[in-house]
Amino acid sequence: MNKPFLDKLRKIDPYVPGEQPKTANVIKLNANENPYPPAPGVTEVLRTFDAAKLAVYPDANAKALKTALAEREGLKPSQIFLGNGSDDVLALAFQSFFCSGEPILYPDITYSFYPVWCDLLRIPYETVPLDENFCINLRDYDKPNGGVILPNPNAPTGRALSLAEIEDLLQHNADCVVIIDEAYVDFGAESAISLIEKYENLLVVQTSSKSRSLAGMRIGYAFGSETLISTLEAVKNSYNSYTMDSLALAVGEASIRDEVYFRETCRKVAATRDRAADELRALGFEVTPSLTNFLFATHPKKAAPEIFSALREKGIFIRYFKLPRIDNHLRITVGTDEQMDALIAALKQIL
Ligand code: PMP
């Protein structure tokens, strides 16, 4: 049967997230989630939250969470934008800042959602190759463009630029909005938030999903000049799906207010990461230096898809990307010490 409407539907290569195994007793190291629970204050909020509050709309200005973030970062609430996870914040930022029609720039190996948003929003883009060590060459970004977006640290490589390098990038890209996606910054890299007073075109995006163990709640934020933040607020406009709900606002605030728990969780993950990297190297893996909660590794003698499948059979889920240049690499989320011990023991058998 002729169905002309089919030609009118949007065709898109969707982003494929890491597998969410349904069986119990698996070791899940495939989505860069945090192996530790959220801060104790989060449990308290969930236990005591008054359901009657759900009868009214959430606070449109999100005053309490923005104030907590502003106090932590030494900013004004008007320099902060909130969304349902940083994916939402990024999607809105693409719509708000990358609309000149000129191609935006991002690394050729990076967070695989960027091309999806570009395709959806019809934003032209140009990818900038990483060097042979998966490093970003900043000089490659010195060309006319409609915007720049970089994860720092980058994903899935784990490598980070220093604050001085980010400032260099900003100095050479004053005519466009530069977005630094800091989803993994809390595990050892330097945040660019300190640069937002100086660079009105800088947007720093962070998330509660990784360092704050809140991937299931969807809490993301952006920091930037009042010019950028008010543009995001205007584009968002109304209580739509970008608006955080009242429960998430309360949970987010409880998490941000517990600095001690946050630092200790990040410290534990980073220590386990460094130990696991050494152990993987001892097994012959080449491991890219990581300042994140994951490791990016390749084994010169065993193909990555084989290792991936063999681990999967043993109930250990990691991530494999069938993409040019990295199709012999594996991305392994840092779990607890016990989980990483089980991973290393399984790899010893497989290799
Ligand atoms: N940026 C990067 C680089 C990521 O890897 C992720 C997680 N997949 C995100 C943003 C989005 O995280 P969330 O929406 O959970 O905040």
TrEMBL record:
Q: Name one Pfam family in it.
A: Aminotran_1_2
**What are the TM regions of this chain, as residue ranges?**
none
Looking at the record's lineage, which domain of life comes first? Bacteria
Q: List UniProt keywords, sorted A-Z.
A: Amino-acid biosynthesis, Aminotransferase, Histidine biosynthesis, Pyridoxal phosphate, Transferase
Task: Write out the GO MF terms.
Answer: histidinol-phosphate transaminase activity
Give the EC class as a word.
transferase
The pathway entry for this protein reads as: Amino-acid biosynthesis; L-histidine biosynthesis; L-histidine from 5-phospho-alpha-D-ribose 1-diphosphate: step 7/9
Q: Which intervals hold domain Aminotransferase class I/classII large?
A: 25-347
Q: Where does the secretion signal sit in this chain?
A: none
Provide the cofactor list for this protein: pyridoxal 5'-phosphate
Q: Which residues carry this modification: N6-(pyridoxal phosphate)lysine?
A: K210
In the UniProt record, does the keyword Membrane occur?
A: no
Q: What is its EC number?
A: 2.6.1.9
Q: Which reaction does it catalyse?
A: L-histidinol phosphate + 2-oxoglutarate = 3-(imidazol-4-yl)-2-oxopropyl phosphate + L-glutamate
Subunit details for this protein?
Homodimer.
UniProt cross-references to PANTHER family, sorted A to Z: HISTIDINOL-PHOSPHATE AMINOTRANSFERASE, HISTIDINOL-PHOSPHATE AMINOTRANSFERASE 2
What is the similarity comment for this entry?
Belongs to the class-II pyridoxal-phosphate-dependent aminotransferase family. Histidinol-phosphate aminotransferase subfamily.
Q: What is this protein called?
A: Histidinol-phosphate aminotransferase
